[in-house]
Structures
1.
Amino acid sequence: MRKLKFFIALALALFAAFLPFGADAMRAEAASAKYYIGGMTAGFMLSAGGAEVIGLSEVAAEDGLYRPAETAGIRVGDTIVAVDGIRVRTIAELNDALERSGGNEVTITIQRKGETAEVPITPVKDKKTSRYKIGVLIRDTLAGIGTVTFIDSESYRFGALGHAVCDENHNLLSISDPKVYLCSVIGVSKGMRGKAGELRGLFVNDTVLADAEKVCETGLYGTFERDYDFSHCELVEAAPLAEATIGKAIIYSTVDGVCPQKYEISIVKVDANNRENKNFVIKVTDERLLGETGGIVQGMSGSPILQNGKLIGAVTHVFLNDPTRGYGIGIEKMMGN
C-alpha cells in the first residue's frame, strides 16, 4: 500500500482548520452545519524544509574548476538545513551563509533519508559573480496538486488530502506560498498492480481559490475565497463514522480539466478506531473511473466520500497491489484538526 503523495513540480490537495469536532459534536450540529462538496483539484506551494540539492555543478574560480559539494560527499536528494549551526530554509539564506564564510571552511548540516549529518566544506569564489559557491543546484519550494474535500458554507474554511504532506526524508512540509490556485488536470498515468498511477496537472495562475494556513497529519487547511462560484457545488451535512456502513457510496474527483465528476465506489470495511487515517477500505466500482485511471491514483487523495447523501470522509491511500482499492479517513478526524 502506498500513501497518495502530491507530485513534485507537477502537482497534490487541501483541507480546513476547524474547532475540535468529534462524533458527539457532529451529531449535535449536523442539523445546521452545511458543507460544500469539493472534488476540484487545486495547486499550492510548500517549503522543501531547507535547500534541497537537485544537481551538482562546477565552480569556475580564477585558478581553475572546483566541485566543493561533490568532493565533500553531498549528493542529489540531500537537503541543506543549516550552515555553521544557523538554520537555512531558503536559497537566499544559504547564499547569505556562504557569503559570510569569506571562503573559509564551514560546516553544512544535511538531511538524507531521515538521517542528519554534518559535512565540512570550503566555498569557492566564482570568478564571474564574485560570490562564494559550493557547486550545487538547489530548490527551496515544492509544487503540488491535490483534491479539495469540503468548504464550510458559513466560515469558508476548507480542507483536503486527508494525510500528511512529507518530503522524501519523511519531514512534514510547511506552507511556502499561501495562495492556492485552481489546477487543470491535463493527463493521467493509469494505476496498475505494483505501480501507483498519478494525475498530471497545471496551475491556472490567474484563478486563486483560497489561502492555505497550515499543514498537519490530516492534510492542508485554510480559507476559501468568498467570491468563488459555489453554484455547481453540492451542499450537504457531515456524518460521523458511526453512521458509515458497508455498501455503496460515491466520491467526487477531477480526472480531466477542472470539473469534478461523481463516481461510484463501495465501502468494504469501516474501522473507526484506526489511528493512521485509514477508517475505510474502499473499492472503485465505477466503470468510467476504472477506464480513465485504473482506480485510485496519486492526486485523488482528498476526494470527498459521500454515503446516504452525507459527507463521511475522504480518499487518502491506494493499495499498491490493487489500484481499484484504497483507504479513506473519517471526516470527523479531518474536522478535528
2.
Amino acid sequence: MNKNNWLVIVNAAAGGGKASRDWEQIASLLNKHDFQYDTEFTSRRLHAMVISRNKIKEGYKRIIVVGGDGTMNEVINGVFAQSATPTTEIMLGMITVGTGNDWAKMFDIPTEYEAAIETIKLQKTFVQDAGLVTYRKSNQTWNRYFINIAGMGFGAKVVAKSNKLKDKGKSSPSLYQMNIFTCLLSYRAIKASIHIDGELIDRKIFSLSVGIGKFNGGGMIQIPDAIADDGLYSITLIKKMGKLRVIASMKMLYNGKIAQHKKVETFTGKVISIDSPTQLNLETDGETLGHSPIEFQIIPKSVTIITRNISA
C-alpha cells in the first residue's frame, strides 16, 4: 500500500450492479493509462464514507470514486469527517457508473470510461462549494454534507420511492420517471415557513430545491442559475399547483426554463431554515435522509474536484 497512489473507491452496487460488472474493464483502462492505485470496495450503505475518512487519515490525498452521485456524497462526508488533511487538499475524480450522474453533468465529466480516466489523468481542478444540512430523523438531529442539490417535498418523495426500488435491484432513468407519476397521485402540497438569510417566506410548496449544482433527477435542470463556487445556495421553490398542471409543466424541468414558470420562485442565500407543521421530507444528492425542521449552511470553496469544465 503506497499512500502516494490513487485510492479508488468502488461501489459495486452502483448502476444496478453495473460497477461490479464493468470493474474489470475500468481497472484495465486505469492500468493502460499507468495509474498507480489501491482499490477499496464498498459493502454497505455509508461504507464509502468510512473508507474515505480512514484512508485520508492514513495519508491518501487523491481519490477516484467509481459509482454514482450517492457514492460521491458518501465520500464527501468522509472528507469532512476527518481533520488530518484540509478538505481542499483532497483531490476527487469520478468515473460515473450510477443511474442519474447529475453532479457529473455540471462539470462535463465524461460518461465513457476511458474519457473519464483521461480527464482524471490531466488533473485539472475546480474548487467548489459544499453544503451542510441539519435535519431530524428518529427523534434525533443529524448532519449531512452535500455537493449538488438537496430536495424537499415532492422531489424527496420520488427519491425515497426510487431508493426503495434500488435496494431491491430495480434502477433506471425510466423507472425514476415512472415514479414521478405514481407519486404524484397521492402527494399533497405542504405549508412551510422558510427563512433565507433572515427573511421569512411562508408558502404552500409542491417542491423545494436548495443547490450548488444545476441538475438532479436524471437530467432535470432543477436549478438553472446555480453557480458552484459563488458561496451561495441557489433555490427553486415550486408552489402548490394541480396535478395536470404539474404534468404539463414537466418539460420546463428539462429545458432549463423552470424559473420562468408562474408557479416558481427563485432565491439565493447562505443560511436557510425550513419548518413545517406537516413533516417535510429531505434528500441530498439522491440520498434519502430525514425531515423538517431543516437548516442549511454553505461552506465556500471547500471541495477540490477534477473536471473538464473548470468554469462551472
